[in-house]
Specification:
Number of helices: 1
Structural class: mainly beta
Protein name: Gliding motility-associated C-terminal domain-containing protein
Number of strands: 25
Organism: Robiginitalea marina
Keywords: Signal
Strand content: 35-45%
Shape: globular
């Protein structure tokens, strides 16, 4: 946690004399200013900052409330408990997670943590996330940093620019949800065998995008299918009043840990989304697994997929084990050398991706085929 400036000391003295820091207008943060809040913040006037950092720190619960929704430039959280978001707030530049959650009431979707167009999200994980609704404004690729009190259960949405897109995670049985009418898991087409009763996500957005969901042992996918090839993404269709397949572009992993990518969908067509299983599992087309060691010795320095010679019109996508896309290339011709080319989600890109296992998805567009596999990156 970085040191704080004199501006923090001034506000801390004001806050210590009353139960909360109350803003009635006139407060400004200039470039380089850092304000640390160890107490609640009541915002009773417009507060839109184009510089400076606000941090939520300490051992006690902090509330953000008031009649006006503040807009912060940079925000970080390093808190033993959590921030109770009673009034929505926005982040213009960067939201950094260290410790503690931002919590919104999931029965009130009008309360949220908003990320504006250029805002980056860093460090979200089990220890620090949004336990409630996160909102993205004017973004075409968003990893929603959502989860519940114990786990980070992000959702990735990528596609057209969404003026507004909103997401929350629920570790609940959709047959008996806390904030919605029931989504009965026995209402499904014959192509589906079962629907998860362990968790679901609420995703809102009026444009078309591709969804990526991850699973872990608590998702209990072994209760749905015998192999990962039977796992699909499903949503409760508003039009049909039942569960429908979203169209699953690809799945990777095993029944303990993995991720799935949907076909392009319009989120607003569905009330909630989760995992399901096929009545008849589909065969997954796979290519070889690859070893990559980009050390300049001329051996395995770049990823070479020989099958692409049969289809110069192709698309290669590479994902890390968390399901985050790190590389994408149309008409791939051996460009991947362990360095990401996807904006917004990779820190210190020039240093190269960390050592480990990655998943690749390749479309042979000339042949109408799609394959997947794994590669190991050695540093």
């Amino acid at each position: 946690m970085r040191s704080l400036t004199l501006l923090f000391l001034t506000f801390w003295g004001l806050a210590s004399a009353q139960p909360a820091l109350q803003h009635y207008g006139g407060m400004q943060l200039h470039e380089g200013a850092e304000v640390g809040l160890f107490t609640s913040f009541i915002n009773q006037a417009p507060f839109e900052q184009e510089a400076g950092r606000v941090g939520f720190y300490g051992a006690d619960l902090i509330r953000v409330s008031g009649d006006f929704a503040p807009v912060f430039y940079d925000v970080e959280i390093f808190l033993d408990r959590f921030v109770d978001v009673e009034t929505s707030f926005s982040v213009a530049n960067a939201l950094d997670f260290f410790e503690g959650d931002f919590v919104t009431d999931k029965s009130l979707p009008e309360r949220y943590v908003a990320l504006l167009q250029q805002a980056a999200v860093n460090g979200a994980g089990n220890a620090s996330k949004v336990n409630g609704y996160a909102l993205a404004i004017n973004q075409n690729r968003m990893v929603f940093p959502v989860g519940d009190a114990s786990e980070y259960r992000r959702l990735t949405l990528e596609g057209e620019t969404f003026p507004l897109a909103k997401c929350a995670y629920f570790r609940e049985d959709p047959n008996n949800p806390s904030a919605f009418p029931p989504f009965r898991t026995d209402l499904l087409p014959r192509t589906l065998a079962a629907i998860s009763t362990a968790e679901f996500w609420r995703l809102e957005g009026g444009n078309t995008g591709q969804v990526t969901l991850t699973w872990n042992p608590n998702s209990n996918l072994g209760a749905l299918a015998e192999t990962v090839s039977g796992i699909v993404l499903v949503g409760w269709s508003k039009a049909a009043g039942r569960w429908e397949p979203l169209g699953t572009r690809s799945v990777a992993g095993d029944l303990q840990n993995g991720f799935a990518l949907s076909e392009p969908i319009v989120p607003d067509a569905f009330e909630v989304i989760t995992f399901g299983s096929l009545a008849e599992p589909e065969e997954l087309l796979t290519l070889d697994n690859f070893f990559l060691s980009p050390n300049g010795d001329g051996i395995n320095d770049v990823l070479v997929i020989e099958a692409l010679a049969n289809s110069p019109n192709n698309l290669l996508q590479i994902f890390d084990r968390r399901g985050l896309k790190v590389f994408e290339r149309q008409n791939y011709t051996n460009e991947f050398d362990g360095v990401a080319n996807v904006d917004g989600l990779v820190v210190n890109r020039e240093a190269g991706l960390p050592e480990g296992v990655y998943f690749y998805l390749v479309q042979l567009l000339d042949l109408g085929l799609e394959y997947q596999g794994f590669l190991y990156l050695d540093r």
